[in-house]
């Protein structure tokens, strides 16, 4: 069965290479993207099934080929309880991203239109994402330090292009920052890996991990851990090496944000679990207090920063810093429960934040902005389903028990309560308390945001950006309508309202007292859109001609995440039973 | 004959040519200095040919080739100089600063380094342009070549 | 090379060569220091002529005549044309040297010192007895057209290319592709 | 047994899932008729499992109380790498009886809500959230593992957030919801840490193991753990100092107030202390803290209740006060008394809230200054609410009398012997007695102001009540009446009003007092006169609202008699009872006398200068705002600035520094080819010399 892992890399790679042949557009491209990513996802499920659940420790499905013999580099792949969930998460998220990209309507750059290729360069986007998938999956599968590093680096380039080509207004700056920052981290990581290589003479992760640092003195381990840790911490990101993240998330397109938050950040934490801690146990023990301190600072800092953010995507990016702080805190405890917490938190964060970014991407596409004050309020009235999903994702993200976000945080705190022997207990108790404060602050910023965005009256909304939420033809029509309405606002207002009422009494009401020029235009556009919607065949367009609520494609992309969040929340054993035996092995604990 | 004599003469000629290339401003003078250096090399070739008694006379033949190539080079070089003169109305080497990183404000003080204010201004632009990220494209690069008369 | 003659008893050829060498070096110095463009070209003629004499002393007669024909005859004339066409100032000009001159002097001096040191050190014991006829036209001609015929032909192609290039460069009515 | 218990918990959960997903399935249609259909279906989905769950809970309680006692079952064990979490359930008399309370109140609330929120477009999600809430509370009650308990504990917090914010159109409601969640969450973090301490000390998170391990723990551990747990208890049960969310939570629909403040969320804290009573009993300092907090809370809240004008806020503060009674009883070591009071309080407070809901529903305002003279109009409500108030005051023979008597006796006993220090016990007992008097006063005041005196209001057209959820028109919140002439077109208001009513133009200014407007408003007498009304005047509420009230009134009346045996106390202690009744009547009498003097005026006016501080509940909210909220917000802004300027500034600064360094290097690149060649030659020379010298 070991071909499965190789196939996991080959299939998306081949899928990407096939795109170099210009053979089809529109539907064919869609079918191609969905097929390739779907097959990859299925392969990962096959791997999961083949992995079994007997709880035995050790790598499965190993492929071990000579790669560069004179350097003793090996093409060594394998999977265990730590990497398997991440692999499945990666393939799943990529697949869902493609499903999401097939949506109709909207003006996002990350779409796979049904017809002709638009200005968004969908073919290139599919190519890039498939390449990204290869890199990420390879990172999780690699069992050779240099192979790991190669895949680790492969990821950067596609992500750079995703941000730089399909991003927002300041995308170039964000992309530059992203790549420079992460490359800097990679260099340090590479130095650390080479240092390990020089000291131990092998690059085999399995052998290194089973040696548990034998043959390296404590000082050397500490040095190597710091180097590798800094390299990984940039990717994670750990405070204070995080500032590339908000910029990148704010500018990246929706699928870019989803993959960045859902998968790319996990590569850093995976590195901690796979390389830094098992290979360099003494170094880890020496650095763990610092790691924990930075993690906790990151938690509180991220939460506080979130409270002051105006942009939704930026806020979620900062919330990622907080959540990854919990993951790092779990690692810092060096206990099985802490590592379990970190790995669980990884997956949970991947699911939840992916969902959050999906939903916020949907919001941004509809409103034309992700600025919280500009969104106004009353999304529950305007777009009830979308707002409900946003609420769900936020609640999951703030760590409500019964949803996936809780277990990672709770177990991390539990680990901090009783850290590994040799670590200062009072220090970690302080960390735990600060982490607890972080959970309160997390709840605070999410709830405040929900209150500002979903609650309240929809008429508070600034309508003008909504014009951006429709296709070009509709935009022209809407602009024309806006001009008409501006001419005779007062005359139109009542009629507009009547039309709105007739069109649909369900959605949030338009308060005529505050229907201003743009508001009138908006209502006007709505009603006209409602008339035109039948012919345009937009199945997702809500009745009453409002901005579309959740469309089927979006729902198809999001529901699996919702289900998984619920599943892991209600049944954490599904994941913990996978990671727990492996974690004990990694730590060399009984 | 002692080989040292011609060798020293050629070394001195070569150094003089180097000085000419580096110190002269007029392009034609630079071309002359290049000729000096070529001749220094030629002298060496001939001497070694004689010294080594090469039956193929490779040294002298090579000298001939070099002379021919030098003639071609001078022709081409002069053509280039003429084209340059047509475009820039000058053949002074240190006014031809198309390769400069910073734009040269005026030909008069464009000698070895830029005046202070210009440096500061461009640096300021650079930092502002790159406020968001690391290095970006250096500013003002594209207005250099044709703008300076 | 144990039978190296003493440096203290130079042969007549050596004396002639040294005199010509001094002339060549002095003329070259004037080329790079004179303040008049045309004078520089003329001093170049002197220098190249002296070099041709050197070649003669070294028994490379064919090379010497070629030197006179091509360098003195063609190249310098070409350079003089260049001076005229670029409307260079005739007479003394103050600004023939760039500000790079001190640095250039330093570098050139250093080059000279290094080269001379190395050369003297390397060829102290080398001696080339001169035998007339080694560089006659017959010898060189047979060498060129027997052994070096292929480079010779390549060289002719190169010359052709240079010719075409010079024409293209100097004509104003030929434009590059936009 | 365990399977049945699991069913008790799972039924509402499934109802919640089904209600959320299935109410509009498959069409997802919206609009008048579809909404009504969805509501009908949602009501069915919500009520049937609630009934089943209640019946099963009753059966469980019967079995548990009569025979088998404790039984536990573990479904699965989740490895965590440290102590495993055992997903298990526990049935014992305590759990079973509280479960009965929960299911009964939940059912009552569900039934009541059908009428109360008829026509509300969001009723399906509302009822589903109630189901989820019920399920979570039942999980708390039956959990055999502390972490499983914590899951239910937090989910309740979420549900309360969702339900309090049911009318989210109004920012005030949204704020109240957020506040409720956050304040309880603060406590919950402490609670979680307390669980850690206990679990780690005991080597297991199972409640039974924890309790059995308590003797082996050091007293420091126990005190730490219980103090931390107490934080969670204070948060959930709205005890000082985390009580501030409860009055604000009145922003939710009245049935939610009944559910949260009577049966479930606030009871959870008390229940937890009772559940872990052996642990708490071993921690004397914790009990002292609990006693002091309870003493301050009960008296302070009662005094605050005395000054409120909002009927629901009166009840809210009374809830805090009554919960403090229970906490005091727990501190005094009488968990039985506390649970008895919990159950009776659950019954009578739910009754009071539901009655208040009817009153508010009818009058259209929360403010007592807008009520009065409703005795004749709402006879059934009057009777039931009187019963409720009597229970609140602790008058015989209503249930509250018995439970309060038990509580007081336990406190009295704590004076002599018990885990409390003397000072704490004395404070507790003194405050409890004082609170009895104040309770009598505020209950009487509310009763009189609501049902007696002159009528101050004519009914609102129900379409214009602020509770319709859809009514956006009239509820420009907080506006003083009659200042907003509504000239806009008829609103698509609540379907309850019937679509036909849409045609009826509002001729007069149709404004209602807002749910949350804190200041007393002038009488509404002339404001609603011309408004059309479907019912044509004040009338009793629909049957779905009345029946739960009547049903709840029965246990309120009778529960005391059965409870005497349950609490383990032999009988009523007449001395204490007489004292408390006397005090309550004294308080009532004072209020009555004052009221009698001027029936239209508020009896609270005699409080004079103390009234405002009492009405603002001693400015605790402002204090917290100044102490916590504002600093955190400032800190947040500071962090955002720091992030931008310092941390990201360092990153950008490094980029800029590199650029300027490169600028230095670029200075040499001045375009002078001669210079370049000079440099190249110099370099070659250096290399040559270097090669010669070094080589």
Low-confidence stretches of chain B: 106-149
Main sheet makeup of chain A: 2 strands, antiparallel
Q: Greatest chain-chain interface?
A: B-C, 74 and 93 residues
Strand content of chain B: under 5%
The biggest sheet of chain B amounts to: none
Give helix % range of chain B: 55-70%
What is the rounded Rg of chain B? 22 Å
Q: What structural class results from the helix and strand content of chain A?
A: mainly alpha
Within the CATH hierarchy, at the fold level, what is the topology of the largest domain in chain B? Helix Hairpins
Instruction: Give the overall form of chain B.
Output: elongated
Structural class of chain B: mainly alpha
Mean of all residue-level pLDDT scores of chain B: 74
Shape of chain A: globular
Strand fraction of chain A: under 5%
- Supply the CATH architecture of the largest domain in chain B: Orthogonal Bundle
What's the number of helices of chain B? 4
Q: What Rg of chain A do the Cα atoms give?
A: 25 Å
How far apart the termini of chain A lie comes to 30 Å
Produce a short descriptive summary.
Chain C has helices spanning 12-33, 37-57, 61-85, 101-123, 137-147, 149-170. Chain C has 178 residues and is mainly α.
Task: Walk me through the topology.
The complex is a heterotetramer of chains A (590), B (149), C (178) and D (695).
Chain A: H1 3-18, H2 27-51, E1 60-68, E2 73-79, H3 83-101, H4 122-141, H5 145-154, H6 156-166, H7 171-200, H8 205-211, H9 218-235, H10 244-251, H11 254-279, H12 281-307, H13 312-333, H14 336-367, H15 372-375, H16 379-382, H17 384-397, H18 404-417, H19 425-453, H20 472-487, H21 489-503, H22 517-536, H23 552-570, H24 573-587
Antiparallel strand pairs in A: 1-2
Helix pairs in contact in A: 1-2, 1-4, 2-3, 2-4, 3-4, 3-11, 3-14, 3-23, 4-5, 4-6, 5-7, 6-7, 7-9, 7-10, 8-11, 9-11, 9-12, 10-11, 10-13, 11-13, 11-14, 12-13, 12-19, 13-14, 13-18, 13-19, 14-17, 14-18, 14-23, 14-24, 17-19, 18-19, 18-23, 20-22, 21-22
Chain B: H1 4-23, H2 27-52, H3 58-88, H4 116-129
Chain D: H1 2-22, H2 32-68, E1 71-78, E2 85-91, H3 93-116, H4 123-142, H5 146-164, H6 171-202, H7 207-213, H8 219-236, H9 245-248, H10 254-263, H11 265-275, H12 277-281, H13 284-307, H14 311-331, H15 335-363, H16 379-393, H17 399-416, H18 422-451, H19 543-566, H20 574-597, H21 611-615, H22 620-667, H23 673-694
Antiparallel strand pairs in D: 1-2
């Amino acid at each position: 069965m070991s071909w499965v892992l190789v196939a996991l890399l080959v299939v998306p790679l081949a899928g990407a290479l096939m795109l170099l042949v210009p053979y089809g557009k529109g539907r064919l491209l869609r079918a191609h993207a969905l097929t390739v990513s779907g097959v990859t996802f299925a392969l990962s499920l096959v791997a999961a099934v083949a992995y079994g659940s007997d709880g035995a420790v050790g790598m499965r499905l190993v492929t071990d080929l000579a790669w560069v013999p004179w350097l003793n580099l090996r093409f060594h792949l394998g999977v265990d309880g730590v990497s398997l969930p991440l692999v499945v998460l990666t393939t799943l998220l990529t697949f869902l991203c493609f499903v999401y990209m097939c949506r109709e309507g909207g003006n996002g750059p990350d779409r796979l239109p049904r017809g002709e290729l638009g200005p968004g360069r969908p073919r290139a986007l599919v190519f890039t994402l498939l390449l990204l998938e290869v890199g990420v999956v390879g990172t999780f599968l690699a069992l050779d330090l240099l192979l790991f590093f190669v895949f680790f680096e492969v990821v950067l380039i596609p992500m750079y292009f995703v941000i730089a080509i399909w991003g927002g207004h300041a995308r170039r700056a964000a992309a530059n920052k992203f790549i420079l920052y992460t490359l800097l981290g990679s260099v340090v990581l590479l130095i650390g890996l080479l240092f390990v290589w020089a000291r131990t003479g092998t690059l085999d992760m399995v052998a290194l991990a089973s040696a548990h640092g034998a043959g390296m003195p404590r000082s050397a381990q500490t040095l190597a851990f710091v180097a590798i840790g800094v390299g990984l911490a940039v990717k994670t990101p750990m405070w204070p090496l995080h500032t590339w993240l908000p910029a990148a998330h704010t500018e990246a397109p929706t699928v870019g944000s989803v993959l960045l938050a859902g998968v790319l950040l996990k590569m850093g934490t995976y590195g901690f679990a796979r390389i830094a801690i098992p290979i360099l146990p003494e170094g880890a023990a020496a650095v763990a207090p610092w790691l924990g301190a930075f993690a906790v600072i990151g938690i509180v800092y991220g939460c506080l920063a979130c409270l002051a953010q105006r942009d939704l995507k930026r806020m979620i990016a900062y919330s990622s810093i907080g959540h990854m702080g919990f993951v790092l805190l779990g690692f810092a405890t060096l206990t099985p429960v802490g590592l379990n917490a970190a790995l669980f938190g990884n997956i949970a964060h991947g699911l939840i934040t992916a969902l959050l970014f999906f939903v916020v991407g949907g919001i941004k596409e509809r409103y034309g902005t992700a600025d919280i004050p500009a969104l106004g309020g009353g999304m529950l009235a305007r777009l009830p389903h979308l707002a409900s999903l946003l609420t769900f994702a936020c609640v999951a993200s703030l760590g409500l028990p019964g949803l996936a976000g809780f277990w990672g945080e709770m177990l991390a705190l539990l680990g901090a309560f009783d850290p590994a022997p040799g670590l200062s207990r009072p220090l970690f108790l302080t960390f735990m308390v600060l982490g607890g404060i972080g959970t309160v602050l997390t709840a605070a910023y999410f709830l405040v945001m929900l209150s500002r965005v979903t609650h309240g009256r929809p008429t508070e909304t600034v309508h003008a950006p909504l014009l951006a939420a429709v296709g070009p033809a509709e935009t022209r029509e809407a602009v024309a309508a806006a001009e008409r309405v501006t001419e005779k606002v007062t005359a139109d207002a009542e009629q507009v309202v009547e039309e709105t009422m007739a069109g649909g009494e369900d959605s949030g009401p338009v308060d005529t007292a505050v229907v201003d020029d743009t508001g009138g235009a908006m209502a006007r556009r709505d009603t006209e859109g409602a008339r035109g919607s039948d012919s345009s065949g937009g199945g997702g367009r809500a009745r009453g001609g409002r901005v579309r609520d959740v469309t089927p494609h979006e729902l198809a992309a999001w529901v699996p995440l919702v289900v998984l969040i619920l599943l892991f929340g209600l049944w954490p054993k599904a994941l913990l039973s996978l990671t727990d035996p492996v974690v004990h092995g990694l730590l060399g604990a009984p | 004959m002692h080989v040292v004599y011609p060798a020293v003469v050629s070394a001195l000629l070569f150094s003089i040519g180097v000085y000419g290339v580096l110190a002269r401003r007029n392009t034609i003078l630079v071309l002359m200095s290049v000729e000096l250096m070529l001749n220094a090399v030629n002298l060496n070739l001939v001497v070694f040919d004689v010294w080594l008694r090469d039956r193929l006379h490779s040294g002298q033949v090579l000298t001939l080739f070099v002379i021919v190539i030098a003639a071609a080079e001078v022709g081409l070089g002069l053509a280039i100089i003429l084209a340059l003169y047509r475009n820039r109305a000058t053949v002074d080497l240190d006014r031809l600063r198309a390769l400069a990183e910073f734009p040269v404000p005026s030909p008069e003080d464009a000698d070895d380094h830029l005046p202070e204010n210009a440096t500061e201004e461009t640096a300021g632009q650079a930092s502002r342009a790159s406020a968001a990220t690391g290095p970006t494209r250096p500013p003002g690069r594209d207005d250099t070549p044709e703008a300076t008369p | 090379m144990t039978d190296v003659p003493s440096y203290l008893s130079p042969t007549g050829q050596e004396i002639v060569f040294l005199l010509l060498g001094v002339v060549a070096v002095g003329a070259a110095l004037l080329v790079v220091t004179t303040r008049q463009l045309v004078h520089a070209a003329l001093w170049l003629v002197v220098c190249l002529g002296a070099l041709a004499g050197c070649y003669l002393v070294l028994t490379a007669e064919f090379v010497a005549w070629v030197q006179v024909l091509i360098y003195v005859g063609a190249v310098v004339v070409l350079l003089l044309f260049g001076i005229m066409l670029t409307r260079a100032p005739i007479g003394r000009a103050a600004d023939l040297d760039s500000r790079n001159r001190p640095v250039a002097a330093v570098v050139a001096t250093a080059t000279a010192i290094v080269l001379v040191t190395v050369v003297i050190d390397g060829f102290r014991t080398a001696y080339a007895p001169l035998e007339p006829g080694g560089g006659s036209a017959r010898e060189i001609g047979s060498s060129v057209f027997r052994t070096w015929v292929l480079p010779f032909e390549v060289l002719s192609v190169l010359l052709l290319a240079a010719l075409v290039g010079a024409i293209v460069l100097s004509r104003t009515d030929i434009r590059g592709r936009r | 047994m365990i399977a049945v218990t699991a069913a008790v918990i799972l039924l509402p959960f499934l109802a919640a899932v089904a209600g959320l997903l299935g109410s509009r399935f498959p069409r997802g249609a919206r609009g008048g008729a579809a909404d009504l259909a969805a509501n009908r279906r949602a009501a069915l989905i919500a009520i049937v499992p609630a009934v089943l769950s209640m019946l099963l809970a009753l059966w469980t309680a019967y079995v548990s109380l009569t025979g088998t006692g404790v039984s536990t079952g573990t479904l699965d064990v989740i490895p965590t790498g440290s102590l495993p979490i055992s997903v298990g359930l526990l049935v014992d008399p305590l759990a079973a009886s509280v479960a009965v309370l929960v299911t009964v109140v939940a059912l009552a609330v569900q039934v009541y809500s059908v009428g109360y929120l008829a026509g509300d477009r969001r009723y399906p999600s509302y009822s589903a959230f109630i189901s989820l809430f019920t399920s979570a509370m039942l999980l708390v009650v039956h959990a055999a593992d502390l972490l499983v308990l914590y899951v239910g504990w937090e989910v309740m917090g979420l549900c309360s957030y969702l339900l309090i914010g049911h009318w989210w159109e109004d920012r005030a409601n949204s704020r109240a919801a957020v506040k409720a969640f956050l304040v309880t969450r603060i406590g919950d973090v402490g609670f979680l840490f307390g669980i850690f301490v206990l679990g780690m000390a005991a080597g297991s998170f199972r409640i039974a193991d924890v309790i059995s391990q308590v003797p082996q723990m050091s007293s420091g551990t126990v005190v730490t753990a219980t103090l931390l747990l107490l934080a969670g208890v204070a948060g959930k049960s709205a005890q000082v100092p985390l009580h501030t969310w409860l009055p604000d939570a009145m922003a939710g629909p009245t049935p939610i107030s009944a559910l949260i403040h009577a049966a479930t969320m606030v009871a959870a804290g008390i229940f937890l202390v009772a559940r872990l009573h052996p642990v708490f009993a071993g921690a004397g300092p914790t009990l002292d803290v609990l006693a002091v907090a309870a003493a301050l809370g009960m008296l302070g809240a009662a005094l605050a209740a005395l000054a409120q004008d909002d009927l629901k806020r009166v009840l809210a503060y009374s809830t805090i006060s009554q919960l403090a009674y229970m906490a005091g009883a727990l501190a005094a070591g009488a968990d039985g008394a506390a649970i008895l009071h919990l159950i009776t309080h659950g019954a009578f407070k739910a009754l009071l809230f539901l009655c208040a809901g009817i009153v508010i529903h009818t009058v259209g305002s929360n403010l007592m200054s807008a009520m009065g003279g409703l005795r004749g109009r709402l006879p059934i409500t009057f009777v039931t609410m009187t019963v409720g108030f009597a229970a609140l005051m602790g008058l015989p023979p209503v249930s509250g009398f018995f439970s309060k008597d038990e509580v007081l006796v336990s406190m009295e006993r704590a004076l002599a012997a018990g885990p409390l220090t003397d000072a704490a016990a004395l404070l507790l007992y003194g405050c409890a007695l004082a609170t009895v008097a104040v309770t009598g006063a505020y209950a009487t005041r509310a009763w009189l102001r609501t049902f007696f005196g002159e009528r101050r209001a004519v009914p609102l057209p129900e379409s214009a009540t602020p509770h319709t959820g859809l009514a956006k028109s009239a509820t420009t919140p907080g506006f003083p009446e009659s200042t907003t002439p509504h000239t806009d077109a008829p609103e698509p208001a609540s379907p309850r009003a019937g679509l036909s009513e849409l045609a009826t133009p509002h001729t007069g200014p149709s404004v209602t007092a807002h749910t949350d407007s804190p200041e007393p408003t002038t009488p509404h007498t002339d404001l609603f006169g011309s408004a059309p009304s479907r019912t044509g005047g004040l009338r009793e509420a629909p049957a779905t609202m009345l029946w739960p009230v009547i049903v709840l009134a029965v246990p309120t009346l009778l529960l005391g008699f059965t409870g005497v045996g349950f609490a383990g106390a032999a009988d009523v202690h007449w001395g204490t009872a007489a004292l408390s009744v006397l005090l309550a009547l004294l308080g009532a009498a004072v209020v009555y006398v004052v009221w009698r003097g001027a029936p239209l005026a508020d009896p609270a006016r005699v409080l004079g200068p103390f009234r405002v501080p009492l009405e603002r509940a001693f400015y605790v909210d402002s204090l917290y705002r100044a102490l916590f909220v504002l600093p955190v917000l400032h800190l947040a802004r500071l962090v955002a600035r720091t992030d931008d300027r310092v941390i990201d500034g360092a990153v950008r600064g490094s980029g800029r520094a590199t650029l300027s360094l490169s600028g230095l290097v670029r200075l040499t690149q001045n375009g002078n080819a001669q210079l370049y060649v000079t440099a190249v030659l110099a370099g070659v020379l250096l290399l040559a010399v270097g090669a010669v010298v070094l080589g």
